[in-house]
UniProtKB/TrEMBL annotation:
Superkingdom to which the source organism belongs: Eukaryota
Pfam families in the cross-refs: CUX1_N (PF25398)
Domain Cux N-terminal: 29-80
Keywords linked to the UniProt accession: Coiled coil
Region (Disordered): 1-21
The protein's name: Cux N-terminal domain-containing protein
Coiled coil segments of this chain: 34-68, 137-164, 266-307
Amino acid sequence: MEAPQGGSDRDKSTSSSGSSLVPVFASFPKDFEQASAEEKLILLESLLEGYQEEVDNLTKRAEFGENAFLEIYQKLYEGLGHYAALDSVAGYCPVKITSDIMKDLNDEEKILPELYVDLHKIHTTLSNEQEKHGSEIKKLNTLLDEKEAVLEETKEALRTSQARLVNQLRHEKLKSLVFGKTVSVLLEKKRKLKDEPNQLEEAVLEEIKKALQNSPTAKLVNDMRQEKQKSLVLGRAVPILLEKNRILKDASTQLEVKLLEKTSSLETAEGNIAELTAKVIEKQKLIQKLKEDVLKYARDVETLNLDIESKFKKKYEDEVIKRPYLLYIEIILLKL
């Protein structure tokens, strides 16, 4: 007689636990709609744990009913009379236990449609969230395509400007080379013009010395007069040559200044090219990072949807397929 009493207490505890889950399941859809993504996972896990607990309770009750049935059958088989066996059956299955079990079954039958509606709402919510994530991913892909198009246009503009600068620099280099050759030729002419008066003066002095060493003849006097005239002409030509030398020197100085300016502009252009190249590399890195972030976000969303769908499917199959079968067995045992 102790086994049935223990079973009755167990049925009472399971019925109380099943009735305590009713307000939790009733408030679940409202809490689920207001919760965030992480809180939704936590609520879904708690709901699945509640389903598992209910299934465990039903399994225990089915096992208890099976044991009671076997024990009753054994007593009927071993008993002396049918009336004693019926008395023992009446002792094992009191009316109170039967009414409690039927009440629990009615409560569970009322809960099942609500649970099915809740599960359908959860499935609809998850589908909507999946569609929302898909639209967000499409928007991100569109934005990424636009950024790539802008970057390609920027790259093309940079390539064009870089090619133009390179051509300009080449032209400037050619001009500077020609200018350098011209400056070197002018400097050489300047040196020759500077050395030519000195050489002429030295030659005249040498001739005068030679003439003084010889006897003064008429021819020598004429030669000296001619040399004097030459020296006078040379003296007049020296200032002219010096003036030309000064003009050439000024021109060479101006050419050197222009060459320095061209060299400075060339260095500035090379610095601008290096800066533009660095900016292009930095933008390429930013676009690559944006692509990686978008792909990672898409993988996380897909993994989350697959996990939720697998958990929901498993618990749904366990509850919808196994539970009616267990209830059917329990009703058969009660009828027996």
